[in-house]
Amino acid sequence: MASSTIPPNRIAVIGGGGNVGAAAAFALIAKGVPAEVLIVDVVDKAAQGQALDISDASFLEPGICRKGSFQEAGQSDVIIVTAGARQQPGEPRSNLIERNYKIIKSIMDSMQPIKPSAKILMVSNPVDVLTHIAQKASGLPVSQVIGSGTFLDSGRLRNALSEITGVSPSSVHAYMLGEHGDNQFTGWSSARIGGRPLLEHPKMQGVDLDGINEKIMRKAYDIIDAKGSTYFGIGICAATLAQALLNNTSQVFPVVNFVEKYDCYMSWPAAIGAGGVEQAFDVPVNAAEAKKLETAVTAIKEACAKYD
Amino acid sequence: MLFREESMAPGRKVAVVGSAGNVGASVVFSLVNTTYPADIMMVDVNERLVRGQAMDLADAAWPTGHRVRTADLKEAGQADLIIITAGARQQPGESRDDLLDRNYEILRSILNGLKPVNPNAVILMISNPVDVLTGIAQNITGLPKSQVFGSGTLLDSGRLRNYLAKLINVRQTSIHCHVLGEHGDSQFVGWSSARIGGVKLDQFPEMQTIDKTKIEHDIARTAYDIIEAKGATYYGVGVCGAILATSVLQNQHDIRS
To answer: How far apart are CA B197 and CA B75, in angstroms?
Structure first.
């Protein structure tokens, strides 16, 4: 709506023609975020359709949604990437990563020159490796490139723990960590409710912790099995992170960020604000968790090695 | 283990009947983005699909405290607000009468399943043809007329306001202009009652050169443009549903058309 001397907030969703991207864009508008949300996609018709549908919500909310170009995306404050190839049946991971490397590189090249203060939020999978690739290909500082990682899984974990303990999910401080995939693990030893260790809570006695882990890891498959794909949950996660980046909230989330101690991108708690990662938090792990962490780090580094 | 317990349910209860589908699921997705949490029940004949939608939406509800779960019609009938999005879509070439016949049967079955309906419940009809189905819903449930309403031309009014907002450079919520009548071919714009800042819309310089008939036509066509580009429309109507739900549940007394 033009003519202001204050530059508008702008969030671009690359891959916004698809369900996950559109859900993220819609969540931003429905949440009342006062930003210009751009739908960017190589499939022009899909981008146009989603932008038209979502912009119908603008009469009730302050945000604006429209189709955008890659150049405009490069000039945004926050760039969410949901575009990418999906794993074919029987396809080896290294193959999937190679295909996605080409896509991400092409996206970053199309956005150049990228606004120096832009933050990239990678959502596409395998998210740890692709966050690494996005940082290399974009040329942005490491602190300005993050990935959704285990944020959604942590949300699912909190829902599950909320059921058991009778405490609101936002008050159960527990994280899923490491790699967003087979090697992710729950930080049981660092989990707390009301300042006390979670595992000491009366309702947690005798609870099958591995069983909870398994249910969380399977959740995505359960949803896909029932409805074909997942997008609402991940859409909200992307929107929540984009809000934190835009509004400089410095909330702490378990997201993919570059952890110096382990010299790799992995899901680890970080305070997220206008600078991207404002602060990192080294979560304490016990012996068993340290082993899982090592496995996760090794797996991520192996996959990333080719793309340094 | 996936849905929140009764003991932790927010006070206000909303049921969305037909929420396996995109429109119903979008209404729920919009609701979970609102700040005042509700206990949201998702109902649909397609149990597997609605369960998948509910799981995905429960994943989206934890930051705001909404409770999302599946339920049957009996439980839905006890909600404070019952939103109905279920129904057949108009097939190419199908007459409105045939569509109405199909949707009457579906609606009748739903409304009977809800009974005995909470006498204080409000019903919000979204399924089309919305004007007729709203009347039918009131008839079959026997609820007071004031407790049964439909989304009607709210989205069309919204599209009109979006257009005028760009034209006159004023925020949509400050443009008081409504699309009225039937939500369908005979809907019309209340140009003579339209005002911005107390001033009649027709007096604005930007309005002197525009083609009103073309605008009305373009607004009415928007749904088709979206369907042509992405296959269906659900986000716009989703937010409409959530806004109306919030007005009802929080007793806000907003004026919506």
So the answer is: 45
Is the pTM higher than 0.95? The answer reads no
b (16+ CB within 10 A) / e for A198-231 = beebeebeeeeeeebbebbbebbebbeebbeebb
If you measure CA to CA, which chain A residue comes closest to B20?
Answer: A227
Q: How many CB atoms lie within 10 A of CB B21?
A: 22
What is the rounded CA–CA span in Å between residue A256 and residue B112?
A: 50
**Residues B123, B127, B133, CA angle at the centre, nearest 5°?**
65
The one-character DSSP state at B257 is -
Amino acid at the residue B16:
V
Cβ A250 vs Cβ A228: under 8 Å: no
For residues A28 and A33, give the distance between their C-alpha atoms in angstroms, rounded to a whole number.
Answer: 6
Q: What is the pLDDT of residues A5-22, one digit of tens each?
A: 788 899 999 999 999 999
* Residue owning tokens 């369907």: B227
Q: How many CB atoms lie within 10 A of CB A141?
A: 15
Among candidate residues A220, A235, A238, A233, the one with its CA nearest the CA of residue A20: A235
- Which chain A residue's Cα is nearest to B221? A52
Query: Has the ipTM of the complex gone over 0.90?
Result: no
Residue B14's H or E segment, with its range, is: strand B13-17
Strand-pairing partners, residue A67, are: A39
Positions of E strands within A62-138: 64-67, 78-81, 119-122
How many angstroms separate the CA atoms of A77 and A220, rounded? 30
Tens of pLDDT, residue by residue over B150-172, are 999 999 999 999 999 999 999 99
Q: What is the DSSP-derived secondary structure letter of residue B118?
A: P
Tell me whether A53 touches chain B (CB under 8 Å).
Answer: yes
Q: Is A227 on the interface with B (CB under 8 A)?
A: yes
Asked if A213 reaches chain B (Cβ–Cβ under 8 Å), the answer is: no
